[in-house]
Amino acid sequence: MPEQSAGASGAATLSTLPPSDAPPLHRWWILAVVGIAQLMVVLDATIVNIALPSAQQDLGFSDGDRQWVVTAYALAFGSLLLLGGRIADLFGRKLTFLVGLVGFAGMSALGGAAANFEMLIVARAGQGLFGALLAPAALSLLTVTFTDAKERAKAFGVYGAIAGAGGAIGLLLGGVLTEYLTWRWTLYVNLAFAALAFVGGAILLRRTSRDKTAKIDIPGALLVGSGLFCLVYGFSNAESHDWSSPRTWGFLVAGAVLLTAFTWWQTKAAHPLLPLRILLDRNRGASFISILIIGAGMFGVFLFLTYYLQQTLGYTPVKTGLAFLPMVAGLMVAATAATTVLVPRFGPKPVVPVGMGVAAAGMVWLTGLDLDSSYATHIMLPLIVAGFGFGLVMAPAMSLAVDRVRAEDSGVASASVNAMQQVGGSLGTALLNTLFASAVSDYLDGRNPKDPVVLAQAGLEGYSTAYWWSAAFFAAGLVISAILYRRGAPATDPDAAPVVHM
Fold it and tell me: Does the domain at residues 19-216+273-484 carry the CATH identifier 2.40.50.1020?
């Protein structure tokens, strides 16, 4: 990324500092601030899952309405991410980051104080809205703060580990808060995360001026926002409706049409929301697809292993969360090794496909779980293997997805990464839930559904089916990433700008 001056075209929002004015410690504190904010956004996708039964009992909403506590967040977050990324580019990353933090905290407080179901859903949608501002700004801050290749690799190793492990940490924290306090604290806890990140961001990040020459692509924002909304909504409906239902395929078709129209419009717009040059780089395109696949497949662990541990083995919410910690450890070790050692030496072409293969092996291993499997022998080891695979994919893909983008595009490129992860997660949830339910129904056909042993065995059949399909996702990811990624280590720009603070 070449050095940008304050008056450079398309990069007026950047302020560069000489290396002597940007001590390394300062940069790593910025990473800590961004990491806290990103952790808050990621774990909120899962932290309320364990709390749902308590919230449902407290507020009295139906089983059919329960999914919307999770879906409202995903809908708002996924459909507004690209707009949030462009806002970060146009209005300054620091301002967008801080506004996102304040809004997210406010909506979390509203949700924690919810007196009824409607109030809770409004709060969850509001969290998604402000998360769509916060997440792209956070990632783009890393993109422009760490320009040295080695430091950037370390920073994205940490960031990738947070992004990958956040879901598991959310399950653990949700279990602790629900078991020892109340479900409301799964939302109130965000105020602590937001306060820490806000104070750190206000002190460490430099304010940037608005680029008054740039404009937001309103038609593009409407097309991509409504298109992503339809996709996420359609996949969510597949959980409660049949795939043949118009409420499922109708929204999915509409989403595909709208996103096709958005792609066409981006070639015509004077100020495109998502410049297509961002997607045309081969490594970057491979990274986006890898993130989509890992987002879909990871739900085979988080979602169904949570059900298995609590419903089949009788784990408490806290014990369930603790059970995922070895996976988190494997993910963090692999993420750090991938970005600091493996990718710089061998390039992404062997590393990401190997990660996909390792993740697939972990999923296949989990298909052997039965009604009396022991944690140490049958659960912990495949979790470590799966986590190691996730780390080898997540950190390099997230780093390369925003590598060498133009400074003025860093926000929207970051938003694209988050959008891929969100859409992948929604697709994975819907598809795997449907496959799980079909496997359970097939097993119960001709058997006594009132027999507890039969029901437990039916659940095992469903879990095994979900793990096999997750393994299939990763196997497809292995082939696709092996084909698309370029050979060799990613090229570095010898004229890269000095460290940039926003």
Answer: no
